Each structure stands twice: as structure tokens, then as C-alpha cells.
């Protein structure tokens, strides 16, 4: 445990006012783990000489090899300042974009964060991401500008240039924070205005509304980073130094006789020291004077580096040591590496741990200072507002704010992730160090055994021969024992925080699932019910026992009997109850916490199988454990039976596969090539051909139907395709006919539907409950969000062909919430609206639709869902397609039961249903028929007619899709690359080779670094980071984040149709078609037919004459 004893930490845990829960956030390679090492060394856990080299919190082997953090690790530190003692629960988090989910798990458990920015690179993409995550979780950040030594050693800036550079970095960070604050204020202002409009206040007339009024009124003084506020530290963690303005203000107030309050305000800013008057004056830049910060702070540091590193002037070093009053060991003075001496001097003069920890204790809040806004946000899941929660649930807000550990305080815990630990690392399995008495006792026992063994030597042979069978049995048992140990090699521990109550070992609590409703739980269970009672079944509620409680100490765990509120802890024994995250509580009124905000979506898929088929059970178990251990990884079993692993990126994938091989499955596995996701869509007919010549109307039709003409008319009796793309298809039993047209959706609509998938899913659940006649308590905020979605769709779907389209939406797909639309364009078929929840319960149509259509309504929707789930090009989901059902004829129920009557007189039996050729429908006769045959009707909608209609609708959608210009959509990464000017051309070369497209580039002011922003297809991204590092000798490093879906412009089935295209491309037109290459690759992987030319019987070409 180092310098701080376990008893001391137990004492500190009971004082929540002096607890600080914080995490370290930054871009990759900005020095998080090095700074964490310095803080850990200050507590005596590791040597200060090893800080930055040991990387104590990177406990995995691959973390040490790669030099990046891959998981969040927590450690508890003790810090004393004056008469106050603090307990710091520090969480080190990864900076690589592939592991941003680990950042989300860390941020949720903290009250504050240390944001680190590299002094050379400045604000990078991941810096903006972590600042946004901290903002979304309502935690307070402080800033550390790290690696200032690079400004001296690498960039060789003067102290004045470095000051200007540091000012710009502060401006960049504050600009990101300001943008987040502005968006929040404007959202709140918009909501306020909307409420005023709803209340009937008149905002029109002569009043001119100004959006900036909200910004003027809001106080943002506490948000920004400024050295004079004490929330900024300048540091070089690798050299062991760091300081805040307060430190130098205290030093110079004693030397110069100026009050420290004055120095605090003037050390950072446009102030200088007038040497004649000995006064601090304003306007240093205008008068060409050195700012106070440069003169009193930076010049001293630059002088030290010049003496120790640049010149190695021993006399000057001795003078510096004398003036600072520092004693350095002789071996450090004589060391060949000047950095060793520099570290020895700086770690005594300006220790970075003291500067950072004092800032943390002063500026970051304790668990008692949690804001009411954050509590309400945590307790409001989904679209439910805090005000709509039950009264008992709202009363728990005081328990959060008080952070009490009393006997009456309800236990509330949030588990942010589950992590696997080797059983040997558990405190119960660890060998306890022996004292002198125990060593003496064991020595005596060993001597006695040795003496007995020597005396019984003559009988030993006979005993062995007599026990041969038993010995064999023992051998069998001993071989079985390691297998049992192997099964229990990994144990899961929950990474959690206590928000209220005292948690004790062996305590039982409720596990609240993400869909748990406290109102339902309180109504179903009696008032005094606890987790120890025999609880009846309640949806999304279970009970568990916290078998072990652990103090997290980086690579080690310490077992505790009880832990009070406000602390971060590890909980053992929850692996059967908690998958990834969960809310634990002793109160049924507690709601589940809002889900974590994950910045990176998993996009990279691989299929995994064991090399030896008999290892399949081990693989299944291993993948289940991996799914539980990684907050971002997903494990799926596809329809084909493949076990698929979905990860956030290439580095994340490699780590997951290593874990699967070496920790969770312990078997050899075969991994497929990455499964690249694509989408299929249709576009408007092209206006120009491939050589940019304008197409006539006849040529456009020829281009669309260039490949599909033969297939469309192969069965003209059952299906027909018009030249404008309308597909008419009849079911095999001739009882139903559907006419479908495929229309491309505007891109804005597709993006909106994709963003609103969760809301559309909620809308579908509401509609389902209304159809079944169930009562459902719909939150007002949810209804507002649905109304807003409808309004946006109406704005975006403008024009003649989209007239009244939003009201006519039949369904979304695939899976009923995807970015495709089924449109009801059937004349006079007034089905129940998709938006019926906005109109109230009386939204059932006054004129009920025809019964056969009504009964078979779901069959049309099911066919649409199947069609959008797998498109005709390569069985990938559709995106951005609207299928408009323009005609639907269904023969009457009577004729379905008497098929012979249909053959005798087909004219006299008109279709009950709606057709574009019919002028009127006898609805009364239809209703009478329906009333007489209700039993037959129920069988009818689930009989063979329904199945044939589903299949026909699916086929009609596929044919309508193929009747339009088809395109493939590729998943795209946003690629941020930092590179120097020398390697810029090589970076562009690698991007061009991999179908990348540069959006913009800009030079970082004050450096020779360029920031290139590009988009890159996911299909071309594998090996991209390695290739770009090799080509640029490590001078460029990319960050890939999934961005959007993009249409590949080339037609996968293109063949030359115009004379100009024949002249330009030739009759074969066998140039590389990127879209067709992707389509064929996907079809080949799925085992579908691929049209390609193969040489089967080749003969070697021979020359008849001899070579001369």
C-alpha cells in the first residue's frame, strides 16, 4: 500500500467533504498516464524516479507495448495540505478514439476532471470530445497544459513566444467550452419561448425578439479556464515540474513586498513591472515590455533549461541550486543524461504533484456539492422528465444531495462497467507477508517433517507400492483440478460509485434494469419491501448480493467490510446479475440512471470461429465474458450461425481478439476478414452520362433499364413494370394485387430518420399499445418530440409528389424504426394514422376501411420490413428509400372460400378493396359481410393468403427498387491527421490510394504541424494507420471516427449506352468499378451468385521458333 495505510483511507472515506472523485481526460499521447504516475509517486506507492517510465496504471501487457492506455483504472490517493487531509479517487482514462467508451464509464463516476492539453499540439479532436463528455455529465473540469518542455527543447521558442503560444491554447480550450455553453443557453431559451407561446402570451406584434438576450443574462464566468482563477496548471510531467499562478504569487509577494492578491490578478495578462517606480503597470504589449508572466516565471524556467540541458554549465547549475536552496545528490550531478539532473532539480523546486493536487482540492467539488441539475439529469431516463416521476422517487433527490451514510439513508449505487480480474490478483488469494514468529513456527514444522521422513524411509517403498491404484486416482483428480481452476480463472468486479447510503459486505440490493419503472414497482410491491424479502416478479427488477467490496488501488485490490457514500469502489459477485451497467438500490422508488453517452459507435465486424470444432463451447463462453468485460464491444449470432464480434476500430478489435485468445476462451481462433457494412439506396435518374454529355428522356429510361429489361417481363401474367417504375404484382392464388413504386428520399429526411430512430421506436410502441387497447402513460415531453419530428418531416418533404405524405406514412423500416418509409398512396383507403397518439384516442377513422384490407394490413407492412432488411444488390439493408403503395386489390372473403365461383364468373365478383379504376365501394355490404364472418376473418389474416401477400409485397418492393437507378452506400470515417509539412505529400498519397477525400487542411499557428480533415471509407481503413505511419516515418498519426453513410456515385451495373460512352470506354467498358467490386465482395462472403469470368481450361502459350 506504500506510505498510506488502509486504516487511514478507511478514516478518510467517512468524510465526504474532503473526498474528490476525479478523472484524467485528454487526447492520445498528451501525457495522462505520466501525470498519473507523478500523482501516484507523491503518495509513496511508486518511486518518483520511475514516474513516467513505469506507467503504473497501465497494467495490461499490450498497453505497455503500444504505449497507450486502453482501459480506465482507479486508484485512491491521500493528500495533506495545511491541516486538511483529502482522499482523491483518481481514474486514468484512455485517449485513443477506439476506447472513448471507457472515458464515458469514468466520467459518470466523477465530480471533476483534469483535462490535459499538449503545449505543442494544442486542442485536438479527442480533446473536444472529452470536454463535451465532461459537459454532458455536468462535471467541473480543470486544465493542465502539459509538455511545456517541448516548446523549449523541440520548437526552441523564446519565453515571450511561448507566452503568446500558451495564450492561444487557452483561447482554443475556452472556445470549445464557450460553444457548449452557448448551445445549452440557446436550447433553454428556445424551450422557455415555446412554453410562453403555449401559455398564450403574445410574442408577436411590435416586439423584436433577440436570441442573444439569453446569453447576456447567463453567468459564464465560472466556466472558462484562466490562470488567475486558479484552474490552470502549467507543467511538464515527464520532467516532474508544474506550477500555478498562486505558487509564484506567494513567492514574489514575500520578495517584492507586493500583496499576493495583486500579483494573482496581474501575473497573467498584459501587465509589466516598471523597474524605476517598482510598480505593476498595464499595457506591456503596446509599450514593447515583457509581460509579468514572462519576466517573473518563464524566464527562470528557460534559464534553468539553458544551463542544465543546452549548455550543461556546471557553475551556473550550482548558482541556481544555491539560489533555490535545493540539494541534489552527487550521482545526479554527474549523470550523463542531463534530464536526470533536470528532474532532480524541478521535482524539488516546482513539484507537479503538489501543484495539480492543490488545484484539485481547491477547485473541484466534493460529493456533497453535487448540483441539483446533475441529479435530475441522472434520474431522468429517456424522454421522461424529473417532474413526471413518482413523489417518492423525487424525494430521493435529497439523498443524492446530502450524500449521507446514515442508517436511514437509502443505498444508491451506479455500476458503470464490469471488468475482469485474474483470481490470483484478489486479496483473498494473495499471500500475506509473514511476521518473525510465523516464520519461526514454519521452520520448526519443516524440521519435524524432515525428521519423520528420514525415520520412515524404510517403509516408504512399501507404502508407495500399496497405494498405486489410489495414487493413479489421485493423479486423475490432480489433473482435473487445474481444469476447474481454469474455469474460474477470471472473476468480474463491478466498477461503481456510491451516491447514498452505507454499503456493507453481503448486503442484498435491487438491480434496476434500464426499462424499470419505479411507479410500477411501487404499485406491485408492498411499501416496506426490501431486497431480503421474497420479492414477486416485477418487470426489469431483480435482487443480488454484494459478496465482496474492494478498494481499487490501480493494479491491486484491497478488501473492505463497508464503504460509505461518495466513494468509488469495486463490487464482487455481480457477474450473474449485471451485464455491463446497472443501477443498484435498496429503494424501489429509485429510477434507473440515464444511459452512458458513448461517442464512438461500434462499426468494425469480424466473424470468429474456433480452429478445432470441439472448442466451440469454450468460444461461446469466452465471447459471453468478453461482451460483459468490454463496455463498447458487441457479440452477435447472425442468421447464418456465425459468431460476430463488433468493435469500435482496428486497435479495439485487436485488443478484443487478444483477450479472447489469452483470457476468456484460451483457445486458438480463426478470424474472418472484417465484415464491412453497406447500405443500398436509389437515386434520381442521371441527367448526364459518364462522359458528362446531357441525356435525353429516352436515354434516361434506357440507362435505368439497361440490365433489368429481360428479367422484368419474364412472367407478364403475375407481374408488370411500367416505364416510370411502377411495379404491379399479383399473388400466386390471384386473390390480391399490389402496385408499388420506389422513390428516393431527400438526404435531409434520411439523416433525420436515422437520428430519430429511438423516438420512432417509442412511437411504434405507443401505436402498438393503442391498437391493442392498452392504457399507456405517455410523457408530455415524448409527445412534444414526436410532434417536432412530424413537423420537421413536413418541412423537408415539400413538392407535388410529397403532398400530404407525412400523414400517409404507413410504416418505417427495417425493424419498424429504420430510415425507409412505406407510403399509403391508395385512393380512399383511410387507415389509422401513424401519428394517432398526437390526435388522442378518438383517432380511429370514422369511415372504417374495407375489412379484407384491414385484416391484411400487417402483411403489407411485414413484406415491406423484409424487403428493406435485405436489398436485391447484395442483401444489405436499404436506406433512404420510400415505397409508395399506389394500388391494392383484395378479393372478398367469400371468394377466397369458394375459388370455383371465381372461375365461373370473374366479372360479377368485384374486388372488395380499393382500386384506382373503381369509383365507388359498397361499404355497408362489406360491413355486413365482415360481421357475419368474424371467425373466418381471423383465420384469413393468418392463413396462406397472408403469407403469399407478404412474399408478393417483398418481391414487389425489390422489383420497384431495381426499376430505379441503384446505388451502394458506404460507411465513412472522419479522419483527422496531424502531420508536418515534409510528409504532407505522402499523407495525400496514402489517402488517394484508399479512396479518401480531403475536406480541408489548416496549419496550427505557431507550429509546423498541419491538421488535415478527410473522409475515408471504412472498407479502405484497415491497415491505414500502420501504412501512414510507415510512409511518414511516424510523423503523422490519424484518428478515425465513424461519421456518416455516403452514396458511392458510380453505378455498380453500368454499361455504355450512348455513342460517346462507347467511344470513351469501349464496348467492354472493363475499367475498375469500385461499387461493383464492393457488391461482389459482399455477395461472395454471403455465398450469393457472383457474375465473373473464370478461366477453367487454360493452355500455356508456346513459341514455335527458338529464341535467338
UniProtKB/TrEMBL annotation:
It comes from the Eukaryota. One of its GO terms (biological process) is cytosolic ribosome assembly. Keywords: GTP-binding, Hydrolase, Nucleotide-binding, Ribosome biogenesis. GO terms for cellular component: cytosol; ribonucleoprotein complex. Pfam families: EFG_C, EFG_III, EFL1, GTP_EFTU. GO terms for molecular function: GTP binding; GTPase activity; ribosome binding. Residues 17-208 form the Tr-type G domain. InterPro entries: EFG_II (IPR041095), EFG_III/V (IPR035647), EFG_V-like (IPR000640), EFL1 (IPR056752), P-loop_NTPase (IPR027417), Ribosomal_Su5_D2-typ_SF (IPR020568), Ribsml_uS5_D2-typ_fold_subgr (IPR014721), Small_GTP-bd (IPR005225). NCBIfam families: small_GTP (TIGR00231). This is Elongation factor-like 1. The lineage of its organism: Eukaryota, Metazoa, Chordata, Craniata, Vertebrata.
